[in-house]
Amino acid sequence: MPIDAITAMAHARANLRHISEAKDSSQLNRLKTGAIGYNQSLLLSGAINQDQLSELSSELEAACQSWIALHP
To answer: Which of 1, 5, 24, 44 is buried deepest, with most CB atoms within 10 A?
Structure first.
């Protein structure tokens, strides 16, 4: 079933909440890697474009940096 860009972006952003729940840096890295793969699959399937992938990547990086700042 085709997925529109708005829905795809919403699902990708929903994954960001899992980043904040990481127990340690190892889990954070696994979650980040999974999110990157998911976002790239959205691009490859045509659900999002390169600009939207860049936007999601920036949001993912910001979420990871926030987690790191809270867990020195």
So the answer is: 5
For residues 60 and 16, the answer to whether their CB atoms sit within 8 Å is yes
Residue 56 and residue 48 in contact, taking contact as beta carbons nearer than 8 Å: yes
DSSP for 16-32, please give it. HHHHHT-SSHHHHHHHH
Per-residue pLDDT tens digits for 52-67 = 999 999 999 999 999 9
Encoded tokens for 25: 């840096």
For the whole model, what pTM was predicted? 0.87
* Integer-rounded Cα radius of gyration of the chain: 12
